[in-house]
What does this fold into?
Amino acid sequence: MMYELKNCPVCGASEIKRIGKVIAGEKEFGKYKCLSCDEEFSAYQKYQREMAAAKKQAQKAAEAAKVSKPTPTVANNGGVQTFTHTPTAKPVAKPQPVKPVEGIKTETSAPSAAPAVNVAASVYKKAINSTVSVVARGGGVQRNGTGTMISDNGYLLTNAHVVMSLSSDHKRVLDASDAIYIKSGKSATHVSAELVYADPSIDLALLKTKENHVLKPVTMERREPEPGEDVYAIGNSKGEGLCIVEGIVSDTHRLVSGNEYVMISAPVTNGNSGGPVFNVNGNLIGIVQSGRSDVSAMNYAIPVDVIQSFLTTAKNEKNCIF
It folds into this structure.
């Protein structure tokens, strides 16, 4: 079944042209270009918004049905650790827009945890070994970025534009890097990595390096972030090494050039591309993609559901074992 659109979500015009499709899990969504405002978009973005709204409604209904304080339970489903709550009343089913990738750690946490003595320090301590500096060289150019570890056997994510030169519309690869290196915050030594799979249209690339007992995979947050939540980004700012910055979630569905992002106020900059963004529980809510050059507090992160869909495709097409 193909999910279709009749109007442009940006300007509302009905003059839209289908130019392709987006596949997420077992569903197909039409991809379009507006003949009025020239923006590109897909039905998947509308589907994500509808699922997010349905999820929030279901969560509210579930909370209303609880008659006592929930007790945390832990389940292990196919190698993916998932934290849920067991209410005494019959739970309301919660829709899941994208099925988590087997082998990738996920967790559902509360929007705000009990405050630690220093939340930023706590997040940094948990997440620093899940973050690496990335250096990509090719064509006489060196690009600095950040990588996010997603498995304990050497797989990590970064932006496609960190490891390859892309056209301005991100539709064409102009050239790829000849050599890619990563460096953890605990090591002064660069270790080589190889490009496994990339999707320039969403600006994600999957890299593989040798296994390292120091590097740990991030835990991906399954709950959609809420506007106003505190967030923390760790990255190789200006190519000068890993550091942490903080801000808030400004918008959860910001449409930019046909893609949806989580907008954050954390002051990320060049070199943070591909780096993780965490909530107060130290769970991943997105990966830094870009920011506005004319203001300091409008920066964009690729949301977890897009990341999960990308990893599912990489796993199926490249036989990756996470």
Residues 108-322 form a domain with the Thrombin, subunit H fold (CATH 2.40.10.120). Helices lie at 43-65, 119-127, 160-163, 304-318. The chain has two domains: 64-107, 108-322.
